[in-house]
Amino acid sequence: MDQDERAASGGLVVSFALFLRRERGQDSGMEPWGDEYFEMFENAPSRTPREIFADRGFFPPSPEELAEGELRGRLWELLYACAAQRFYFYHTDHLDDLEFHHWLHRDWLEEPIDDIPPAMLMNCHIAPDEPFCAGSDNEVWLRFYADEADRAEMAADEPGVPLPPHETPANHRDRFLPVSTPPPTSEIDYESMMDDDPLGLLAVDREIQRLRAAEEGRKLPDAPDWEAPAKTLQRTGFTPMPPAEITPEALPALLWELLHELSLVGFYAVGTNHLSDGELYDALWRRGLREDAPLVGSGKHAGWFHDLSETEDGGPSTRTAVIDRDWRLPQWRYDVAGNR
């Protein structure tokens, strides 16, 4: 099967423009920043995130309900659900997975907020302030995240207040957290970017760019190679567990851990609501991980979308939905470059 056939039968490389359309609200049916937008903002009810998720049928388990091996996957499941509702976290590296999970369930999920519809494109950015805040939002920031200039400015503003010693966070989660797509800088013709290029002009243009870069002593980034995602994941140090070895209790956590790891190399599952957790994991194990894909984790302008709404022979699935999962799946992130 050549690359064009692969794209038609299970995956799709999608350009930046598709996501710009989504982020601008062009799929919402509303005029961005029009009267309807502001009315929805002004009339947004105050509710807890837990209540907002419950309305969507999502009930995240608390850390106390999870076995040790389930914690990481379930944490990422919750974080992707938060991102789907435009809640984005940062400055979390001072907390390990258990501490962060506890903070989310004990504090953040219970804190009333304005329930602003995601279609309004209003992002909410949250930084946990436990366990060192002691009533001050600055304590954890000064200890772990402030640079020398920030610390010097704080010392000048409050000369009588001693600064906590700087510490390097023990964890490395922040660079992998879901992020919002940046605002568009110009109009992009999506249809032309998805052109089949029958004359091969893109290849000619790339060769011209390569020669020009060589003259200037630069090197163009390599085009993505086609390889099985299982091999790509292996190089990152992640090895998914075979389905036959997974217990029903551990399955949801291991599924979300796999979905998260795949997203970090530019692979995204779509069209999964007709599959149970076990069926989705099995489908990823049998096909998603084995079939070659142009993973673009090293680039910023595309992602490989593995469409599970199609049958193995390329036709549309006729099965009805058994779970409402797609809205909270990992989404394409523009800054995936350098995460690994």
Provide the fold topology.
Elements: H1 3-9, E1 11-15, H2 16-23, H3 35-42, E2 46-47, H4 49-55, H5 71-84, E3 87-89, H6 97-106, E4 113-114, E5 124-126, H7 137-144, H8 148-157, H9 190-193, H10 201-215, E6 226-227, H11 229-236, H12 251-264, E7 267-270, H13 277-288, E8 293-294, E9 302-307
Parallel strand pairs: 3-5, 7-9
Antiparallel strand pairs: 1-9, 2-4, 6-8
Count of alpha/pi helices: 13
Distance between the termini: 29 Å
What is the makeup of the main sheet? 3 strands, mixed
Mean pLDDT: 78
SSE order:
HEHHEHHEHEEHHHHEHHEHEE
Q: Level of helix content?
A: 25-40%
Throw out a few tags for this protein:
340 residues, two-stranded antiparallel ribbon, 37% helix, single chain, 2 domains, disordered N terminus, mainly alpha
Can you tell me about this structure?
There is one protein chain. By secondary structure, the protein is mainly alpha-helical. The chain folds into two domains: 1-24 and 221-334, no CATH class; 37-183, no CATH class. Helices cover 37% and strands 9% of the residues. It has 13 helices and nine strands. It has a three-stranded mixed β-sheet with strand order 1-9-7. α5 packs across α12. The relative contact order is 0.15.
In short:
The chain is mainly alpha-helical and 340 residues long. 37% of the residues lie in helices and 9% in strands.
